[in-house]
Amino acid sequence: YSPRNYKQTIPLQYTWTGLEQESVQPTAEGAIITHLRGGESLLEIHLTGATFTPLGLRLMGQGTGDHQGVATFCTYGFLDFETLSTSLISGGQPNYGFTSHYALSEFDLEKLRIQGGSITVELHQALGGVQFMTRGKARISLMGTVQRRGERMKNRTNIT
How far apart are CA 111 and CA 126, in angstroms? Predict the structure, then answer.
C-alpha cells in the first residue's frame, strides 16, 4: 500500500497492532489507515498455510508413529528486520494465517531490488521442547510487489 494511492485502504484486519488510538485514523469507508511517513509504502507478507504430501507426513512422523500430529512452523527474515515465526500448528494441512507488516522507505525498496527481491521461507518441524528440525526452505519473489506497488500479489511455492 502506498500513501500516494488514496483509493487503496488498508483492510482493518491488517492494521498495525499496539498503536495508540490517535496514531490511526478512520476513513470515510470505516476502515483504518495507518499513518505512513512521506515516501513510505506498506508491505504485507501473509503466510497462509501448508499442505504436506502423504510421503512427507510419513517421513516427518517416523520415530513417533504420529503422522497427523506433526507440529510445524515457518520462519523468514526480510531485509534487516528481525526474523519472524508463525505459530506452531499440528496436522497435515496447517493453517498458519500469519501476516507481517513492513513500512518501507525508498531506500528499503532499492535495497530489496539490489538483493534480488525475495525472501527465504523455512519450514521447521517441532520435536519437543525447544528442539526443531528444518525440513525445507524456498525462496519467494517479492519483485512483483516492488514493480507494481499498490497491487495484491499472490505467490505459491513448493518446499522440498
Answer: 33
Give the position of cell 501448508. Answer: 50
Indicate the residue type of 77: G
Calpha distance 115→53 (Å, rounded): 32
Asked whether 108 and 60 are in contact (CB, 8 A), the reply is no
Q: The whole model's pTM is what? A: 0.72
3-state SS string over 37-76?
A: CCCCEEEEEEEEECCCCHHHHHHHHCCCCCCCCCEEEEEE
Report pLDDT for 65. Answer: 58
Name the grid cell of 142.
Answer: 517479492
Q: How far apart are CA 147 and CA 15, in angstroms?
A: 23
* Cα dihedral 75, 143, 7, 37 in deg (nearest 10): 70
